[in-house]
Amino acid sequence: MEGECKRRGEGQVEIGVMMEAVHKVEAAPPQSTVDKMKLRLKETFFPDDPFRRFKGQPPRRKWVLGAQYLFPILDWAPNYSLSFFKSDLGISYAKLANLPPIIGLYSSFVPPLVYSVLGSSRDLAVGPVSIASLIMGSMLRQAVNPNTDPFLFLQLAFTATFFAGLFQASLGILRLGFIIDFLSKATLVGFMAGAAIIVSLQQLKNLLGIVHFTKKMAVVPVLSSVFHNTHEVLFLLLFLWSWQTIVMGISFLAFLLLARHVSIRRPKLFWLSVGAPLASVIISTLVVFLLKAQNHGISIIGKLKCGLNRPSWDNLLFDSTYLGTTMKTGIVTGIISLTEGIASGRTFASLRGYQVDGNKEMMAIGLMNIVGSCTSCYVTTGAFSRSAVNHNAGCKTAMSNVVMALTVMVTLLFLMPLFAYTPNVVLAAIIIAAVIGLIDVPAAYNIWKLDKVDFLVCMSSFLGVIFISVQEGLAIAVGLSIFRILLQTTRPKVIALGNIPGTNIYRDLHQYKDAKRVPGFLILAVEAPINFSNTTYLNERITRWIENENSMEEKETNLRFLILDLSAVPTVDTSGISFLIDLKKSTEKHGLELTLVNPTGEVMEKLQRANKIHDFLGVNSLHLTIAEAVFSLSSQNKLQQQEVSSTLFI
Amino acid sequence: MEGECKRRGEGQVEIGVMMEAVHKVEAAPPQSTVDKMKLRLKETFFPDDPFRRFKGQPPRRKWVLGAQYLFPILDWAPNYSLSFFKSDLGISYAKLANLPPIIGLYSSFVPPLVYSVLGSSRDLAVGPVSIASLIMGSMLRQAVNPNTDPFLFLQLAFTATFFAGLFQASLGILRLGFIIDFLSKATLVGFMAGAAIIVSLQQLKNLLGIVHFTKKMAVVPVLSSVFHNTHEVLFLLLFLWSWQTIVMGISFLAFLLLARHVSIRRPKLFWLSVGAPLASVIISTLVVFLLKAQNHGISIIGKLKCGLNRPSWDNLLFDSTYLGTTMKTGIVTGIISLTEGIASGRTFASLRGYQVDGNKEMMAIGLMNIVGSCTSCYVTTGAFSRSAVNHNAGCKTAMSNVVMALTVMVTLLFLMPLFAYTPNVVLAAIIIAAVIGLIDVPAAYNIWKLDKVDFLVCMSSFLGVIFISVQEGLAIAVGLSIFRILLQTTRPKVIALGNIPGTNIYRDLHQYKDAKRVPGFLILAVEAPINFSNTTYLNERITRWIENENSMEEKETNLRFLILDLSAVPTVDTSGISFLIDLKKSTEKHGLELTLVNPTGEVMEKLQRANKIHDFLGVNSLHLTIAEAVFSLSSQNKLQQQEVSSTLFI
């Protein structure tokens, strides 16, 4: 149709003349408050509509479905396929958390079994992950020194794990899954990079074996304590270290980084970067074993007891002195590990085209950690890297977790003596290689290119983590993100629209060069809910628009109509309604006529209700489209002018 | 144009055929990050554009304007007109704050003078106000008992006033005026009602003269302490009270309430409700004086020293034991009084059609209170009721404040002895009458009718104030309001659109009965910024839509296109962008083609930038209007089908 008008090449008044039927603005069919509340709650807490599949099923089927909902194992057990043997970074990650290596293995045994029963993702491989491990280690280290008081530290770790699980499960049960949505990608990119740097610094300690080391996590104290101990460092380098250690460490680090580099270049070879750590553990162990390297100054893990996880619920410590620390640690690690777990689960689910129920995942991961805390495990979650391996290996079911658990079990039962010869320096190398992978510079660069504010968020979490502390850094970033959302509502965009010649289309005058402003009309679009937080601003902003217009417009066609396009206003509250009422009055003071265009369902409904109370909507104050509003107003305006002239010339 | 189609009575594919020119989506002209930031900051902190008036003025004029901007007195002094003598509730309000009556008079002398120099509103009448007075009284009472330790209490009051002023001024200087916008009308209605009830309860104490009274502010302790002292109460009623007091109190209370009732019915008689208190003070004083009623058991204020405010900066108490209390009190009273002051200022400004600079008002009120705290005044602000009197009396300038200050000065200097005979019971009656006026049931009812969530906010602040405490009640209400804003972004509306037959208009299928869904198309509109907080939700929501459609649609016309209308999406962040990219991929998995319609300037810009990085926008993936998208897609689709068939029948 635009075409026709173009051919005729007419202004929009002509269009108006062609336009006969003017459409009424309708309100949505009435709906009781209770129903509305129900819907709102459903959208808030059950956005994924978990009970959809139950609809219209025979009761027996419903029972089956319900059982499958609770224990997805019933869903896939009939047709599972084995995943290939997968390596386990548990040992080194345990070191990240300043925990004894064996805890890492324990944590790779029980949790996968629990998840394979409760979890709904088919690709997720659960176990300890670097980021959660290092946060737990760093936060607990502020309360207890793991070197001087290892057992207490272990107790705190279990307790924190317990709280993490409790927190995660309750998030799921209370359907509050959306809380983790507030950790934006920008936040996480900055956070992980910062954490990685902190950890590498912390590794200095292990690498240089400094004894009097700061318990703090931030960069400044760490560095300072490195420098304060320089004499010690030099002493160590000169006398205590052996060239073998240095050679071994550097060579394995190089190997690991190379593996990661290759696997990034060739996604098909992804397993390389995951296999490499295990390989280097095995190789280094063999080397040490064969060359008796431990006698040449290479420190090794030493004897590890055989046997499966021993119960640890008697080690949970709810002593008031440490309760604060453990709860805080539990919550932070809980959220972080949830974020990684859910994110990876969703990623692979979408690759396979199936849905993951976020809240159910949270319950599964939460229970997994509660059980873990009672069986000598620390925080575990779905690990992205290993899940990727699962996925590339094309495993169809969560059975892979069972398989992994079994392999770990074998290790725990029979292979422990071999680990005795694993050199610590290799574990350090594995850690450094792992955390370096967390620094994602290209992602940060893309964020910078796309959205400067997001980049600010990213940087603030990065710098916050580095210079203040892990939790403060996170808090700042999240606070900024939330403040941004509030600001978008508190200072909404108000856009002036113009007509695109030869059409009924009205668009942003600033965005579309060929859009023309309609003489005598001021057409504004508000792009946010109109509520208490922005009515004052909108009032001032619109007044400014009107004044600018009046100053710009040449006299003969002075402003006569204000059209407010409400298409982009999803909701109004009582303040918003009274704002519209006041605007109506004040525009009349300016000698303008206010017209509202295309209010959405909820807005329309409230307008009607408000109109019942203080009747302010005239005949012409609602239109379905801007074009129709412009047409009917300008024509009515013509009539008035004619009347005026006729009265003059009688 | 819609008309034509109606006559022909065609479906929108026909319309499509008529539609030749398909319009390109344009991006806003490029703009440097710095400029964007500048604009954003300006809109955030200088929404009222205070420097507009300076633009393009000769330097000398600029100086004059600058001086007038700082001291509006220069602006109106030349042509002021006197307001008529206005009554002063200072004395009774001071009692509300548990302060000696004289402080009330002091606070009605200095602040008006300060405001008349700095303030920018012409109608605002400043002085003590009930709500701020009672908050200050109640909050300070929790730290110090005004009866046992009156001087310390006085010091705390001055200090709190100082902090209130400091807080208000800094809000203004930092351009953070929008903070008071977060006290929505709903919050205030509930808050005031709650506070009023608390105060009336507190007046029980003054009325019944209970000595061992709770220092708490909440209802429960107050009531309990009333009941625990019933024996004392009865004792008082039986032996210590005189029928004269009761008669006098009740009769004057009746008189005051009647006056308010009348003035509400007849807005013209507004001055009645404001004149009444002064009248009753004068009358009761005369009665007591003539009948020597003080000898018949009516307690009176007693001697008040003549003379103007004495300096009080040496009474400011920054002792660490009370610093917390005074600062908290200062901030709460500061915000509350600002809200009343600015609100009344804006109301009358809009009635007169002039603008009030919110941030400048804050500085003025803040400085006024800082000065006040050094001259024996407590928190003051613009009072709505008395400003209304100013307005109805048609006074054009803030000179009315000067006049009022002068009258108060005369009182302070010469008329003090008269107050000696003013009975306390009348002041109690004035307070009760004043605070009962704060309970606005009709407003609460309207809120309930308009917006249930707002009503929830209102109730929570009401109940919070009554059962927990003034500040907690406020905090809860504000928290709820903010949470609501966040929720609107976190759970945005996603609406399915349909075509209104015979037009190019697409509207909400739920809202418009005659809108028809276009076979083969799913047309969704998102009504919020797409950002980190809602991408997960949108993903699940849209997947649900697609599944529902596929289940509903009969096979022969199965879903082929997903049109996403971005008209109501003001901004996206990086998460939003990657959401759109993923959606493109996942829809392709579902065998759908995704098309974006009418992205706003910022969104369009980011889409282009993102497209440079990971090229995902096809030729057909952007359209200006839904109608054009539907047309071009369905026609292209026809072509494909023809090809298919031709290939089949070769």
Automatic annotation (TrEMBL), chains A, B:
Cross-referenced Gene3D superfamilies: STAS domain
Instruction: Give the residue spans that cross the bilayer.
Output: 99-118, 150-174, 186-204, 233-257, 269-291, 362-381, 402-420, 426-448, 455-483
Per the record, the domain of life is: Eukaryota
Q: Cite the source lineage.
A: Eukaryota, Viridiplantae, Streptophyta, Embryophyta, Tracheophyta
Q: Name one GO cellular component term.
A: membrane
Any one GO molecular-function label of the UniProt entry:
secondary active sulfate transmembrane transporter activity
Q: What is this protein called?
A: STAS domain-containing protein
Tell where it localizes. Membrane
- Organism per entry: Musa balbisiana
Alphabetically sorted, this entry's keywords are:
Membrane, Transmembrane, Transmembrane helix, Transport
Transmembrane helix: is it a keyword of this entry?
yes
